[in-house]
Design brief:
By secondary structure, the chain is α/β, with parallel strands linked by helices. 49% of the residues lie in helices and 13% in strands. The chain contains 20 helices and eleven strands. The strands form two sheets. Strands 7-8-6-9-10-11 form a six-stranded mixed beta sheet, with helices on both faces. A five-stranded mixed beta sheet has the order 3-2-1-4-5, with helices on both faces.
């Protein structure tokens, strides 16, 4: 397929059903990137509203491909009204791009397959690698051996990323920075949240999971200390990978000036316009009307705010702006997740893994990127675990050494995919259900297996397939052969646990999407 001139030039769309709920699925034909919107009703107006909202993020599409069946007639009618060339792929059957999108949404992840030939494709440890691992163990000990693995698989933590957040006082910069880092105002290391301007100088806040990801709180332009004349010199925007310009109402004259200066310094600079406190707008609109606020009403108001921001920026001669609406205290609502996705897309290749692994896994794109990286770690982690199983004496430890390696990695999977218990408790409170009820409704089990070393050892035993062979007793090659057998066993355990976490994350996202649209969790 030829490289398109930009994202979403050609898209595939379909309406699919999951658990008796309707979803609009739109996918970029080239990148296979998905946008999914819950449809309380499949009316033409509702579908058109969803698509318009998607286009406001990624730009208008030029060509639409869809299956031509009865379930899609309204979608074709609604999307075609947006001046997109529509065509049908019905003669091709359920293959191609559209089938890919449907499969992605409806896949229940019963056994998150890394490929049926996963173990055959595993990067198996070589005899030379085994000897090197043995040398490290002998010369430096088990602790240094584990540190070598840590340095190798978590090298992304050494990559520096700087994100600037600026805007006038009262726009919610501090609360935005805290939510971006997964913190509340009273957590250690949180930015101070105040009704008055507290930012007197550029201040860096470290991400709790990666100290090299720094989110900077910049003073707004136009104060006595930071005038237009000295602002650029004082804050030195050239050191930032991204600048997020916040406003809680409309972007004002100083905001427009700063945006123009940033784009003048670098035309394609990663500048995001973030309209904060959209939740306040929705609450005010609800109080102002007697009727019950429907999902369509909420969507219409969001689009109105987005259009107004776009118009004001265009009046200031700023076009093609990246505009996002957020609730500063809820990263799962509105466009917070889209900001994360765009950060991943726009960051340099060198820094992409660091960005992906540092962000909270709340959107489909973030999760899929994380899963790809976690999958890529399995070969190296399983090599280390296998060497530990064969060459590290358990001593006073209750279990063999590979248990420790595998348990740490499995806990890392849960943390990366937003399944750690602290995150789930926050979600339960937000959805106003009991924490235990959340775990039961989603049939979550992964937390049980990593609760303790004893629990994980029992889980591991269920996969233990190592059988002693006469070849393993040979003086020179016996241990080499055992390491390879153990590596396959450890890789299989990691694969299965990652699959379990992938399913739980998928189910959680789907349930949350429906709850946000007003359905019962």
């Amino acid at each position: 397929m030829p490289l398109p001139n930009g994202p979403w030039e050609k898209i595939a769309a379909d309406i699919c059903e999951v658990d008796n709920k309707q979803f609009l699925v739109v996918m970029d034909y080239y990148s296979r990137y998905l946008e999914i919107g819950y449809l309380p009703r499949t009316s033409s107006d509702n579908v058109e509203g969803k698509v318009s909202n998607m286009f406001s993020h990624w730009g208008d599409a030029k060509e639409l491909v869809t299956d031509k069946d009865e379930s899609d007639e309204e979608a074709i009618e609604a999307i075609s009204s947006l001046d997109i060339q529509a065509e049908s792929e019905c003669e091709k059957g359920p293959s191609g791009a559209q089938a890919t999108s449907i499969d992605t949404v409806t896949n229940k992840f019963e056994d998150y397959e890394l490929g049926s030939d996963f173990l055959d494709d595993l990067d198996m440890i070589s005899d030379e690698e085994t000897e090197e691992y043995k040398r490290i163990l002998k010369e430096t000990g088990y602790t240094a051996f584990r540190e070598k693995l840590e340095d190798t698989i978590n090298g992304w933590k050494t990559i520096q990323i700087n994100i600037a957040v600026t805007g006038e006082s009262g726009t919610g910069k501090s609360s935005f920075i805290n939510s971006f880092r997964g913190l509340k105002a009273d957590d250690p290391g949180a930015a101070e949240v105040s009704a008055v301007e507290t930012t007197m100088k550029p201040t860096a806040y470290l991400h709790p999971d990666n100290s090299n990801l720094q989110v900077w709180d910049l003073p707004g332009v136009g104060t006595l200390t930071f005038t237009r004349e000295n602002y650029l010199q004082e804050v030195d925007l050239s050191r930032f990978d991204f600048v997020l310009l916040l406003s809680s109402s409309r972007f004002k004259e100083n905001d427009i000036w700063l945006a123009k200066e940033i784009l003048r310094l670098k035309l394609n600079f990663n500048l995001f316009f973030v309209r904060t406190k959209i939740d306040d707008d929705l609450r005010s609109a609800k109080k102002a009307h007697n009727k019950i606020q429907t999902p369509e009403d909420r969507q219409a108001l969001q689009q109105k705010v987005r259009d107004n921001v776009k118009l004001k920026l265009q009046e200031g001669k700023i076009f093609n702006a990246n505009i996002y609406l957020v609730d500063n205290y809820d990263i799962a609502a509105f466009d917070f997740g889209t900001i994360f996705s765009k950060l991943i897309q726009k960051v340099s290749t060198l820094k992409r893994e660091a960005m992906i692994m540092s962000l909270t896994g709340i959107t489909n794109e973030v999760v899929q990127n994380k899963l790809a990286i976690l999958k890529s770690r399995i070969s190296l982690v399983s090599k280390t675990a296998a060497v530990a199983a064969v060459f590290v004496k358990s001593g006073t430890n209750k279990y063999s050494a590979e248990i420790d390696v595998l348990l740490e990695e499995c806990r890392f999977y849960r943390s990366q995919l937003g399944l750690n218990l602290d995150s789930l408790e926050i979600i339960a409170k937000r959805l106003e259900i009991e924490f235990e009820e959340l775990l039961v409704k989603l049939s979550m089990k992964s937390h049980i297996y990593v609760e303790s070393e004893d629990r994980f050892a029992m889980y591991y035993t269920g996969f233990e397939k190592f059988d002693q062979s006469i070849w393993h007793s040979l003086p020179l090659i016996g241990n080499m052969l055992k390491v390879k057998v153990y590596q396959k066993q450890c890789a299989f355990v990691l694969k299965k646990f990652l699959g379990m976490c992938a399913k739980e994350t998928h189910d959680l996202q789907m349930r949350m999407a429906m709850a946000l649209e007003g359905s019962e969790f």
